[in-house]
């Protein structure tokens, strides 16, 4: 059973929880807004679901609540940000704002970040430039290794996601947000909390057998999308977001799910491309509408009711949850009530 809440109440609950954890009020409001937006978009594994883990890490001293974000290096179209072990939402919001500012002058900007933390769903940051007549592209090193190199068994790679957002005029933006594994590990965690099983194809054990019990996820690993192709994407995205930025990669990645003390040194990348550097923005957005129409009008295979584009479900879920509320499953509500009691704040 689930009950619902609206984004205002959810944001306020997250903010007051973070303030009690010594996060300054303005920072808490920003992080809470991004986390609640994740839930509004249907990214349930990256919103308030993560609050208990964040609180545990904060209280263990694993994250800096008052970081000083610094530019380690900078050129007209690039920058490298040191997040000072702050919450990833703060680091990436700052990095994305900087990338957009630079792109307005240079046409395109690439901003990397290191010494960050888990920042929520990739689409949060790719969509920020899309709202400003830009194309946004986001890459990150995942917050724990759940995948070996193709053919191996040592956990050296993570879900290493990518998100790309393109603005349109009359249709929703096209938003690709995907892990380089068949399923993001957040989906495994939410399935475990809800007592659900996983479909075959998400994970296998170390003998290559399907693993469908999410409570036994430590006995196996996630599978890459497209077999060795997904492994290759995870590797390259990890190098660009991790190695290039001086952030953790491979065996140096800290398991955010079980180690609450160690500094994660999470790496991210945001690219902002100003459409006006290549085309008239209004015309480009109209062309994206045309792409929508072409894809939706495609002849369909038997049994297929509808052709969908990346970001279409996100848009529909956002609309539905804006009108009808954000569902909070009973299991999650119990965990959040326990967090509220622990922190001494009003519950959700």
Layout of helices and strands:
Blueprint: E1 2-5, H1 7-20, H2 25-40, H3 51-59, E2 70-75, E3 78-82, H4 88-106, E4 108-116, H5 123-130, E5 134-140, E6 162-166, E7 174-178, H6 185-194, E8 203-205, E9 210-211, E10 220-222, H7 228-243, E11 266-274, H8 281-296, H9 312-324, E12 326-329, H10 330-343
Helix pairs in contact: 1-2, 4-5
Describe the structure.
The protein has 348 residues and is of the alpha+beta class. Helix content is 39%, strand content 18%. It has a domain at 1-59 and 322-348: Hypothetical Oxidoreductase Yiak, Chain: A, domain 1. A seven-stranded mixed sheet has the order 2-3-4-11-5-6-7, with helices on both faces. Strands 9-8-10 form a three-stranded antiparallel sheet, with no helix packed on it. Strand 3 (78-82), helix 4 (88-106) and strand 4 (108-116) form a beta-alpha-beta unit. The protein starts with a strand and ends in a 5-residue tail after the last helix.
Summary of the model, kept short:
By secondary structure, this protein is an alpha+beta fold.
Main features:
alpha+beta, 18% strand, three-stranded antiparallel sheet, Hypothetical Oxidoreductase Yiak, Chain: A, domain 1, seven-stranded mixed sheet, 348 residues
Overall geometry comes to globular
Round the mean pLDDT to the nearest integer and report it: 96
Distance between the termini: 16 Å
What's the name of the CATH homologous superfamily of the domain at 1-59 and 322-348?
A: Malate/L-lactate/L-sulpholactate dehydrogenase, four-helix barrel
Beta-strand level of the residues, as a percent range? 15-25%
CATH architecture descriptor text of the domain at 1-59 and 322-348: Orthogonal Bundle
Count all strands and give the number. 12
Major sheet characteristics: 7 strands, mixed
Helix proportion? 25-40%
Stretches where pLDDT is under 50 for at least 5 consecutive residues are none
CATH topological fold name of the domain at 1-59 and 322-348: Hypothetical Oxidoreductase Yiak, Chain: A, domain 1
CATH C-level class of the domain at 1-59 and 322-348: Mainly Alpha
Indicate the radius of gyration in whole angstroms: 20 Å
Order of helices and strands: EHHHEEHEHEEEHEEEHEHHEH
Biggest sheet, spatial arrangement of strands: 2-3-4-11-5-6-7
Structural class: alpha+beta
Helix run count: 10
């Amino acid at each position: 059973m689930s009950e619902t809440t609206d984004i205002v109440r959810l944001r306020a609950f997250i903010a007051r929880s973070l303030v009690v954890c010594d996060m300054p009020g303005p920072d808490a409001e920003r992080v809470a807004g991004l986390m609640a937006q994740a839930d509004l978009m249907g990214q349930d594994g990256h919103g308030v679901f993560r609050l208990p883990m964040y609180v545990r890490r904060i209280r263990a001293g694993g994250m800096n609540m008052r970081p000083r974000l610094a530019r380690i290096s900078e050129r007209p179209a690039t920058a490298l940000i040191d997040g000072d072990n702050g919450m990833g939402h703060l680091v990436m919001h700052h990095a994305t704002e900087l990338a957009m500012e630079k792109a307005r002058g240079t046409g395109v900007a690439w901003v990397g970040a290191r010494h960050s933390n888990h920042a929520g769903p990739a689409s949060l940051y790719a969509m920020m430039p899309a709202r400003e007549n830009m194309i946004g592209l986001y890459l990150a090193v995942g917050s724990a290794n759940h995948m070996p190199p193709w053919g191996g068994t040592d956990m050296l790679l993570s879900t290493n996601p990518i998100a790309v957002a393109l603005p349109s005029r009359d249709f929703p933006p096209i938003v690709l947000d995907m892990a380089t594994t068949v399923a993001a590990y957040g989906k495994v965690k939410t399935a475990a909390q809800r007592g659900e099983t996983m479909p075959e194809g998400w994970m296998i054990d170390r003998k290559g057998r399907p693993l469908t019990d999410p409570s036994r996820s430590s006995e196996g690993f996630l599978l890459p999308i497209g077999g060795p192709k997904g492994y290759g994407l995870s590797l390259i995205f990890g190098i660009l977001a991790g190695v290039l930025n001086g952030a953790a990669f491979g065996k140096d990645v800290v398991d955010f799910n079980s180690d609450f003390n160690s500094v994660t040194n999470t790496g991210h990348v945001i690219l902002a491309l100003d459409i006006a550097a290549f085309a008239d923005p209004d015309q480009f957005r109209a062309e994206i509408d045309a792409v929508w129409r072409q894809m939706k009008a495609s002849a369909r295979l038997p049994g297929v009711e509808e052709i969908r584009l990346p970001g279409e479900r996100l848009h529909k879920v956002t609309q539905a949850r804006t009108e009808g509320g954000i569902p909070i499953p009973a299991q999650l509500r119990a965990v959040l009530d326990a967090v509220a009691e622990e922190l001494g704040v009003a519950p959700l």
